[in-house]
Amino acid sequence: MTSSDPTTTNPMRHIKIFDTTLRDGEQSPGVALNTSQKLEIAHQLKRLNVDIIEAGFPITSEGDFDCVSRIAKEVRGPVICALARTNPKDIDRAAQALEQAEKSRIHIFTSASKVQIQYMLRKTPEEVLELSDKMIRYARQFTDDIEFSGQDVMRADPEFVFQLYKMAIEAGATTINIPDTVGYGAPLEYGMMIKRIYDQVVAGRNIAISTHCHDDLGMATALSLAAVENGASQIECTLNGIGERAGNTALEEVVMALHTRADYYQAKTQIHTRELYRTSRLVSRLTGMIVQPNKAVVGENAFAHESGIHQDGVLKHKETYEIMNAEIVGRQAAVMVMGKHSGRAAFRDALTRLGYALEGETPDSSLNEEAINVLFVRFKDLADRKGQISDEDLRALVEGHDSVKETFALEDLQVLSGMRVTPMATVRLVTPEGTQQAAATGDGPVDAVYSAISNITKINPTLESYRIEAVTRGGDALGEVTISVRYGESKVTGIGVATDIVESSARAWLHAINQILAGQMKTKQDFTLETP
Q1: CB 195 within 8 A of CB 232
Q2: Could you tell me the end-to-end alpha-carbon distance of the chain, in angstroms, rounded to an integer?
């Protein structure tokens, strides 16, 4: 090791977690979060204790501007960051959106690779340098916290990269981000790039080096950790690794790698790890992007042992096959059993034990009394059907609940279907005009239910996708139906949870219709420019 080795100068360094779930994560194809959903995720990111929240790209749409503004106004604690190109209009819009933030950051980006400079920016390297210098200095009038990124570093000329970041520091950038925007780099190669930047560009100055890696070759986490080994003090990442194409570095992976192997990396984060699983589930539910069962840390099988040899070892001593336990990431090792005889007090206690913030018990409450009352009724109904209710059942109930006003609520449902019978459904809804009932036929029982509901609500969106997933175990498992519908210019995700898949489907359809009626959905404008 050399005297300038960053891993020896400050043992157990603090690594900042820059969460870009709401910006880069939302760029995942098919994801469209509304303001209410983004705020819910932002508040949960605060509970997770991330250092920086990249709330959005304000210039892209009024909806994105509104989301960043609301988050800046309401979320205290983390730095709130907005993205901007090297364009004064972008920077002005970002600054406006961040006006009410407790702590703000403007993240300016350009391109570093020849292919992007030539074909996307259509500029010369000299023009990129001149414009970047000018825009960083321009942004400094709004905040002292400026981050600068040059896209596609691993396919760029290293000498130009060094020149670009030296310019950025001289212009006033306080964080320089080194993005492997297309996931091209190898870990050792990327680590060496970070080390050269640390030695030759930062050169002892109080400048943070950040890493932003994509997972096109499945190496995003390895790349980010290689950067930490070589001087990076900030990791840009998303929950569940969502994002452009194959996604970004997964927040839960780098956090738990640093936590579990602190002996090796000599670095730590300030993340509240017991919030990881809950945050992962929230992001998955609101984005509609499922987490693969074998996903590290947050996948359903991450702490499961099926092999007899593994089971025998774990029963004798957990550390035979476990390097971390379920509790440390917010999952319950013991099963809590609730049933139809459980009262409201026990129900509230169970929700608190599972980590849900209830109104009146914490300033960051996520469930008010009205929501608890609705959930308690659903809990009693489910307990009558299943008998015993597990922790996973309770989580599914809570996560299947939405704060959208229920203009229409399901009261009863009957379906007639068979091999030689035209499917028919009779639906009874609670409506603003009282209870209404309608019947309809369809190509199948779900189609018939949707037609009957639409006959009452007079809202008939176009179904674009339908997915069902068992969210608990056993023959009486809860089924979660997630649908994507389009109504005019709006695209809405509807979610329904029940033991019966037809009922789950009906609740998902009603959830989508209630969102449409509440006017919560904003059109997501396409923005084709690749971002870091």
Answers
A1: no
A2: 31
Residue 404, domain member (yes or no): no
DSSP string covering 78-146? SEEEEEEESSHHHHHHHHHHTTT-SSEEEEEEEE-SHHHIIIII---HHHHHHHHHHHHHHHTTT-S-E
Pair 226, 239 in one domain: yes
Query: For residues 144 and 136, is the Cβ–Cβ distance under 8 A?
Result: no
CA-wise closest residue to 213 among 169, 243, 257, 252? 243
Q: How many independent structural domains does the chain possess?
A: 4
| Neighbouring-strand partners of residue 105 | 81
| CATH number of the structural domain spanning residue 173 | 3.20.20.70
The CATH number covering residue 445 comes to 3.30.160.270
In terms of domains, do 310 and 163 share one?
A: no
Helix (H) or strand (E) holding 467: strand 462-470
Task: Evaluate whether 478 touches 499 at the Cβ level (below 8 Å).
Answer: yes
pLDDT band at 333 (very low <50, low <70, confident <90, very high): low
Q: What is the pLDDT of residues 26-35, one digit of tens each?
A: 999 888 899 9
Q: How far apart are CA 137 and CA 86, in angstroms?
A: 11
Q: Cα separation of 318 and 305, whole Å?
A: 11
193 plus 120 within the same structural domain? yes
Name residue 491's amino acid. Answer: K
d(CA 327, CA 353): 12
Q: Which residue has the tokens 């000299």?
A: 126
Name the residue with tokens 């997964």: 250
| SS3 readout for 178-224 | EEECCCCCCHHHHHHHHHHHHHHHHCCCCCEEEEEEECCCCCHHHHH
73 part of a folded domain: yes
Give the model's confidence band at 521: pLDDT under 50 very low, under 70 low, under 90 confident, else very high. very low
What residue type is 372 in one-letter code?
Answer: I
pTM (predicted TM-score): 0.73
Q: Is the distance from CB of 17 to CB of 255 less than 8 angstroms?
A: yes
Residue 445's closest CA among 512, 505, 498? 505
Residues 391 and 421 in one domain: no
CA gap 330, 8 in Å, rounded: 32
**For residue range 114-132, what is the model confidence (pLDDT) as tens digits?**
999 999 999 999 999 999 9
The 479-487 sheet, strands edge to edge: 462-470, 479-487, 490-498
Instruction: Give residue 316's domain range.
Output: 303-331
Asked if 483 and 457 count as a contact pair (C-beta separation under 8 A), the reply is no
Is residue 526 assigned to a domain? no
- Residue 298 within a domain: no
| End position of a domain, from candidates 356, 373, 399 | 399
Enter the tokens of residue 464: 């674009």
Cβ–Cβ < 8 Å for 252, 240: yes
Distance between CA atoms of residues 440 and 430, nearest Å? 18
- Indicate if 106 and 231 belong to the same structural domain: yes
393 with 338, same domain: the answer is yes
Residues 166 and 218 in one domain: yes
Average pLDDT over all residues of the chain: 87
Give the residue among 95, 50, 92, 106 at the shortest CA–CA distance from 75. Answer: 50
Same domain, 273 and 318: no
